[in-house]
């Protein structure tokens, strides 16, 4: 199971709004100055994801929870997102090449097939994305921010 920590933004009537940050490996690599990926990551927006998840247990803003999602659903989603457009690209390019015997037609077919593959992947993900197997689950809940107080006597 893939695990990720999230911070609770709000909880209302059994629905928790969570905030997660996308992590890159650039912070742990020592080749930052000579790396093109590090430069591109600095230019782009800092990816933060906001999601909602059902939680019967009341949660407080600022509380950390651990989410989990099955590897099989993650791999299936990646396969759908990457392979469907690629399959559409090759299929329609091949059909246009056979029909019109032109490289320009094959290139146009490849473009149409790739776009069509993205549309098909989006439609399939909308249908299958609501299934329970593709939803993250709460694995553990950390203490609320105000539950632990440390006092030191000097």
Automatic annotation (TrEMBL):
It comes from the Bacteria. Keywords: Membrane, Transmembrane, Transmembrane helix. InterPro entries: RseC, SigmaE_reg_RseC_MucC. The chain crosses the membrane at residues 74-98, 104-121. PANTHER family: PROTEIN RSEC. This is SoxR-reducing system protein RseC.
């Amino acid at each position: 199971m893939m695990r990720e920590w999230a911070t609770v933004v709000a909880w209302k009537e059994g629905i928790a709004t969570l905030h997660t940050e996308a992590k890159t490996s650039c912070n742990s690599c020592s080749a930052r100055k000579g790396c093109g990926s590090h430069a591109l990551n600095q230019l782009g927006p800092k990816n933060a994801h906001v999601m909602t998840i059902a939680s019967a247990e009341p949660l407080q803003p600022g509380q950390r929870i651990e989410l989990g999602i099955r590897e099989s659903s993650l791999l299936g989603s990646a396969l759908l997102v990457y392979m469907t457009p690629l399959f559409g690209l090759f299929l329609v390019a091949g059909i246009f090449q056979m029909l019109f015997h032109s490289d320009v037609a094959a290139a146009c077919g490849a473009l149409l097939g790739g776009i069509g593959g993205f549309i098909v992947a989006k439609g399939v993900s909308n249908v299958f994305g609501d299934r329970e197997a593709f939803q993250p689950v709460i694995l553990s809940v950390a203490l609320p921010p105000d539950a632990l107080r440390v006092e030191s006597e000097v």
